[in-house]
Every structure is written in structure tokens, then in C-alpha cells.
Automatic annotation (TrEMBL):
Domain Plastocyanin-like: 205-312
Domain of life of the native organism: Eukaryota
UniProt protein name: Copper-containing nitrite reductase
Gene3D superfamilies: Cupredoxins - blue copper proteins (2.60.40.420)
Pfam families found in the cross-reference section: Cu-oxidase_3
Presence of the UniProt keyword Cytoplasm in the record: no
Region (Disordered): 128-149
Amino acid sequence: MAAWSKFSNMASVGRWACSGRSRMSGSALHLQHQQAVRGASWFRPVTTSSKPSGTPERSRLVPILAASACVAAGAFYLTRQANARMDLAQDANVDVSSKSVRHPVATCSAAIRLRSMDFLRRTPMLQQSANSPRQLRITLSPTSPTPSEDSRIAFYDTLEANPPDVSTLPIEHAVLTSAPSVPPPLTRTHAALVKVDLTTSPKLVQVTNQYKYEAWTFNGTVPGPFIRARAGDVVELTLTNRDETGNPHNIDSHAFTGPGGGAALTNADEGEAKTARFRLLCPGLYVYHCAAAPVPVHIANGMFGLMYVQPADGEGGGSDLPAVDREYYVMQSEVYHEPPETDEETGRPSGTVEFSYPQGLREEPNAVVFNGREAALTREAPLKARTGETVRIFFGNAGPNLTSSLHVIGSHFRRVYRDGDVLSPPGRFVGTVGVPPGGAAIVDLKAVVPGTYTLVDHAIFRLDKGAVGFLNVAGEARPDVYGSAEPPAPCVGCKLHA
Ligand SMILES: [Cu+2]
């Protein structure tokens, strides 16, 4: 009778569960309950009881079986139909609704509608939930690593333990681009030996609207080339020093693993070339720079760039960020210079200025610029998009001193991969993101309303030091989103609102 008592309790739970009390799914679940009861009426229970059929014990089997069927039906129903309030990474292939379910059998404070059962199979936590619908209580937050994140991280934690035979890797020459261009995404799903050739040389640039400045460059540009590779790749970096001033140069890439980030292996004197190999163990967006002494001078003079290491975990070896329509490369940096000398012949101040170490020590830049020059993203090469397109900016801050407060006026970062971290869930609908010197972030925008959008460092006095860039969006007006009966009237002299 103890067993009967236990079953009886289950039956009462089942009746309660199927009584239609569920706020959202009660009627549907009740219907399934009725169907389950009707379906179970042909079943004759097997029992060791000596009591004849038709006894009260037998009659109690009906609600027990009905309850069992109801639980099964409820579990089936909930694993397919329950909705959720949670925010999973888009590439998890999960559709989310605003409804929540609280059901006594399978309480779902945050459940999910799965567009892809493949995701269910690949996610240990959800596998467990689906197998145990009574335990279907899913709580996710952007700051708590999910099991899927843990499994991704485990891939990289053990990556160094499985070195490839480099002699068997296919050889590629990296596509190197100058800002604001970005090399196309890598679609291969295997590791490669990626050859990267960087050459140092000085170059006179119009650093501000007023002054020219002799920058020290990688491949003749500030910032240096954008380098795109893939976790697990082996980068074969050759640094050739063609700087006739006699300064040594090297590469410290934050993407490389090892003391100095490669500086000691690549240090090249004038006329030298150094080659070294670096296996990429960590995905993300990283700054690289010259680390020859004195390091602050080499960085301040323009020797920096970005390296993006695409993720390589996931099925088939691919798990890059969600595809976007356009990708751009933007770096912020500071210029420290002495006052212009006076031309002895004309008596006028020179149009060319030289580096100032004291200004750098005081952390008081004369200019703060995007992509190496005040005009780089305004008059020379503003970013472009059309309405409806998604735009990704790989943003780096070379410093050397100031933290950037990156903001695009009138838009939102629909995804922010803070600190260049491409494994954690991205921030969503962010207005301003902080990027420290030597740091990076990936931000995704959506071009909704046409017009000119302004990139700024929201430490806003810096706009008067040159930290302004434009994103020009073409397309049809959207008065439903942004409109007035009056035409736009930017204030006179405004640098920000076109
Ligand atoms: Cu250098």
C-alpha cells in the first residue's frame, strides 16, 4: 500500500499539473491531457495485486497512467513550445520571445523556442534540460559563462597541447589592408602557415590640418596594415627595417604568446630583416606595435596596427562572428609635438612639427586622431554604408596614453565585443564603449536612418584635437524613426552634426 500511496500522490500531482492552471499553456496542455487519458483507456495495467479487476485500486491506476502521460506530454510540449526571456549569442541559433512560462510540472522561468534542434544536441545544458523536463529551469546572464562558452574556452585552453606539423600546413600570404579597409573574412576551416611581411620606413604625413609630421610606419601607413588570421594558424612574420634614420624596430603583437610578444625575435636594425614564427593560440582582436626602445616614442610616432584572430572552434572549424555587410578598420592615437620652429628666411612658423617627449610624459597630446591623421575619416576617406546594412568597426586604441570613449553620434552598437573578446556574449545596444591604450573592441552598427554619423572619443574636448570621423549613410529617409515637420538645422560651426 506504500507503493500505491506513492503513485496516488503522483496522480494527484498529475491532475493538478493538467488542470489548466498554467497561465499560458493550460488549455493546450489540458487537451493533451484528455487525449492522453483517452489513449490510455485501452491499456490494462499489469499488477501483482490479487485484488480482482474493478477494485478501487485498479480504478486508481487510471489517473496514475493519465498523470504519467500528462507529464510526458507536458515535457514534450514544453521542450518544443516553451518561450523564454533570455539573450543568447545570435550564432547559437536560438529565437527568443518575450513570453515566459511558469508551469507546475516543468517550471520554465526562462525557457526557449529552439529554431534548431542541432543547437540542442550540441549544448550540454540544454541536453540535460530536455532529458529532464522537470528540471527545465534555465537561467542565463551575459556575465555568467554558459556550458557552451566553457566548451569553447576549453578548445583554446588545450590548443597549445596539439602542435601541428608546420611542414604540412598549407602556405598563405596574408591579405594586408590599409585603414579603413579590412581583409575579407577567412572561410577556410583548417590551420595554415600565414606569411606576413612588414617593412618599416619613415613617412611625412599631414597629421593635422595645420602640421605635417614625420611618422614611423609599418608598410608606409599609420596605422599599419590590418592582419587577419585564424586561431591555430602559424604566422611567419618577416620584419624588414628600411628606416634610414638608424632606429631599430620590431613587433610586439598582443596576439602572440611568448615573452615580449615577439619583440626580441623580430628586432631588426637598419637594413636587416628578421623572420620568426608565432602560433596563434587565442582568438580576438589585438593591437600590435613596435617595442624598440624607447617604446613610447615608437608607438607615438605611428608604429601600431591591429591583428584579428578569427575563432576556430565549433563544428567544421568555423565560428567567426555573425556576418555583416561592411567591415572597417579604425585606430585612435595621439600626437605629441613641439611648437613649430620658425623659418629663418621667411620668419614664419614651420608647417612641420617634431615629436615632443615632454608632452608625452605630461600626457597632454597636441592632437588625438583616427587612422593617423585629422582628416583620415572626414575629408579623405569617411566610412560609408547604405540604410539596412550592418557595419562592423574593428577599433583599436594605440594611445600611448589616453583611454578612448568610442561613440558614434546618433547610432548604437548593437553588438560590442568588449576588449576584443570574441568568446563572451557581446554587449547589446551600447552607446559608448571604453577602449584603453593597447586595447581594442569590435562594434557592430545598423544603418537605419540616412545621413552623416560622427565617430568621436566622447571625452569630447578631443574633438577639437582631431578625434572626429564620419560614417555616411545613404538611402531612403525614415521619418517614422527620425522626423520633424521642420528641416534639420545644424548649429553654425558644428563639427558633429551634419
Ligand atoms: Cu619601432
